[in-house]
Amino acid sequence: MSTRFSVTPVDAAEIGGYDHETDVLIVGYGCAGASAALEAVEAGSDVVLLERQSGGGGSSALSGGEMYLGGGTAVQEACGFTDTAVDMEKFLLAALGPDADVDKVGLYSRESLGHYQWLVDRGVPFKPSLWDSPTWVPPTDDGLMWMGENAYPFCRIAEPAPRGHRVTSDGFGGKVLMAVLSEAVEASGVTVHTDTTALRLIIDRSDGNRIVGLVARHFNDIVTYRARRGVIITTGGFADNAELVAEHAPQLVGLGVNSDGGDDGRGIVIAQAIGAAVRHMSAGQVGISAVPGMMVRGMVVDNLGQRFINEDVYPGLIGQAALFKHGLHVWVILDEQAYEEIPVDERWGVRPHFVAETLAELEHEIGMPAGALQSTVGEYNRHAERGEDPYFHKASRWVRPLRSPFAAVDVRRGMSAPSDGGTEGGGGAAVFTIGGLHTTVDGNVLNLDGNAIPGLFAAGRATSGLHSWGYISGTSLGDGTFFGRRAGVAAAAG
Amino acid sequence: MSTRFSVTPVDAAEIGGYDHETDVLIVGYGCAGASAALEAVEAGSDVVLLERQSGGGGSSALSGGEMYLGGGTAVQEACGFTDTAVDMEKFLLAALGPDADVDKVGLYSRESLGHYQWLVDRGVPFKPSLWDSPTWVPPTDDGLMWMGENAYPFCRIAEPAPRGHRVTSDGFGGKVLMAVLSEAVEASGVTVHTDTTALRLIIDRSDGNRIVGLVARHFNDIVTYRARRGVIITTGGFADNAELVAEHAPQLVGLGVNSDGGDDGRGIVIAQAIGAAVRHMSAGQVGISAVPGMMVRGMVVDNLGQRFINEDVYPGLIGQAALFKHGLHVWVILDEQAYEEIPVDERWGVRPHFVAETLAELEHEIGMPAGALQSTVGEYNRHAERGEDPYFHKASRWVRPLRSPFAAVDVRRGMSAPSDGGTEGGGGAAVFTIGGLHTTVDGNVLNLDGNAIPGLFAAGRATSGLHSWGYISGTSLGDGTFFGRRAGVAAAAG
């Protein structure tokens, strides 16, 4: 990693005096950092919260605002759903795997009702109404949405219930969540230092290699922080660092990024430089530039006209399959009836790139082999006459034969209107990284021997959270706030 | 990583005296370690070579014995092929990417003739005759084979020439290669310590954090080594370490492993513990349990009867696509004529799991949706009548309509006879890891700042070599010997 400033730790013996001292030092003011700060203060610690940008919010504030919550929340019950922590756990293990973190998923599911209540008590709004169709973010202000719990294969693995709790907002809810948390942070007595970038950790080799502080940069000044009880890294992922992405997640190279521009992975690397372990660095969320309402009413095919997934799953799983299995060369095929049925608000301004009377014409326009779409749609329609999809098991609610005239949307060309799955110049997809520091459920960062590094904690997308390979929306704000809080408690206890 | 012995480095100041001293200490006696040892001795160094097993050879000795060489070797010329380093480089960048190591691939290609000559001079035999059909390892003793250079898309990217140089052998050639190299090592004056496992690196914090030795285990004794000029890690990959595989390459979990059983990644992790950088840890070679002669004469389909690749590429690329894109749920479909045309030696004892007069029966037997194979084979045959494959561009030499009776081979059931792509109980595939330590072309291990770690070198599958994501057979013995030699030279220079 070529960096202007070394990531190698500084020996505490070399520090003459510190510019700032606190009990708990938190690096990064997104949802994980804010949650950690609130709990650390609550536990009686002095807290300093650093943020490289000029204000708090981070990538969290730019997100859709979904939080994955369940087990029978007030929102779920008001919408007529019963739910259990056991079903939530089963779903998450299936959707976030293979090899999702069993300890984290179990705890996260069992304590989800308390997590929900903590958010509500701080003033986070969730409207008790359901958006009942696959989407990135509801075009309405509905507060509850499916994350594919009712789609194959998940509907056979766990009792389905919608668990996507979307922070009420006119549009993306992340900014509302961060406004609420920031207000609480401001009221709590936490000291916030903005425009301050983490450079290197400070290690005390005479005290069991304990992490005792941080060297940072404030504009052009180098400043030092002493943390008496602990440092918590909540700096986000590394999607903005092209070099790290190429080294660890080559399939994400060159795509758009969902972030605030500051997800450079430095928090991860400065911890690695003192021996911290990482996990699942190749994993990524893939928000493709496609409209879920179109995909589910039509079909998604690869460049050779072949379907590869049931289009009613969480659209991020379609995105992962599209990128990791088909190099993003994918198309949404639909007919006029499907297009007309999609509420205008749900179209995100996307119009088909090709329209044709026959599939032969359409496949020719796209440049697929002659017969490719005719073969796929013919086979799809033959079964759809009976409302069946024996290939991919899309729910019969969304299955009917597609009829002329037909249309095709080129996912690589992107969307005219950004969304949670939209892109900003990335060629059809916007991504972020899921892997990161290996932590315990209490936020302790583990070293390569599997032992906790004294004085070092982490949470949010700088860590490998609930996930291994799969991803469901709501699990980043979800594990960021949940495990951020736990890291704050643990650090305050020293 | 839970390990019986800590991977945390030992401070040189804590070492009272060393059990052994040498100029260059090499850890791991496979092809990379042997090549490094020969060059370090040639450069005038005392060399100690450690091996955890009771004798040298490592995973190299169990491999097929292919070495990727080109640019116009004597073997290529005797078989009537002209070749250039430029075409070799273009092919490798395409086949080993995305994001293959440009510096390493360039140097490796430009110096390939010298590399070939060094091997021949040491007595490595290559018979100048071509095996002209896709295979894991020729069933004959032919010394030259295609690695898909003549298959789409590679045939359009670089002028095709076969570059798979297979060490002459009755069967796998790795044992012959290692016998030749071991004889040279024995004659060279290198001291070999077998039954000796690396535990921790020794770091001199008073001398710029230089690596000055190693703590190892010899049966039940802890022994220390001082290396005056450098330590070279050539310990292989981490495919045998289930925990590391789950953390870094989740798609390889639970499969068979191509190794000597000792590829536990410890060499990588003890270097990470002193701040070494790694790359491409998620990448893997995937040897599926399928016969290339069957695949190329028939077709490979997923569990829904869909083709996904041209069957004339290097079979490892079919394996990667089968595992990473289709979860290994793949089938080889062929007809009686195809089966009969395959020489018996090339069948590796594999017989079809299902045979049927019609595709409707076959898809029913397999459990595919009704119409799945009929649709795919119908579309394939329609184009095959003209010798064309507009979907995947398999060479017309291998394209003809498939006719009743039909047969299907279930790749997940494995093969009755092991091969380079065979499995030993892994459910249809045997894998090894490709990622590892980030090194320069001279074998210097880089830290997280991108700077060489003084005194530490590495080569072979403990490093990220030529590759990023893709893999072609012959590039492990190839870069192991090539960059092993360079690491030996560099370490001897101190």
Automatic annotation (TrEMBL), chains A, B:
According to its UniProt entry, this protein's organism is: Speluncibacter jeojiensis
Gene3D superfamilies documented for this protein = FAD/NAD(P)-binding domain (3.50.50.60), Succinate dehydrogenase/fumarate reductase flavoprotein, catalytic domain (3.90.700.10)
> Which SUPFAM superfamilies does the UniProt record give?
FAD/NAD(P)-binding domain, Succinate dehydrogenase/fumarate reductase flavoprotein, catalytic domain
Tell me what this protein is called.
FAD-dependent oxidoreductase
Q: Which cofactor does it need?
A: FAD
Share an example GO biological-process annotation for this protein.
Answer: steroid metabolic process
Alphabetized GO MF terms: steroid dehydrogenase activity, acting on the CH-CH group of donors
| Keyword Flavoprotein among record annotations | yes
Q: Which residues form the FAD-dependent oxidoreductase 2 FAD-binding domain?
A: 23-477
Query: What InterPro entries does this protein's entry cite?
Result: FAD-dep_OxRdtase_2_FAD-bd, FAD-oxidoreductase_2, FAD/NAD-bd_sf, Succ_DH/fumarate_Rdtase_cat_sf
Q: According to the lineage, what is the superkingdom?
A: Bacteria
Alphabetical keyword list: FAD, Flavoprotein, Oxidoreductase
Q: What is an example of a Pfam family matching this protein?
A: FAD_binding_2
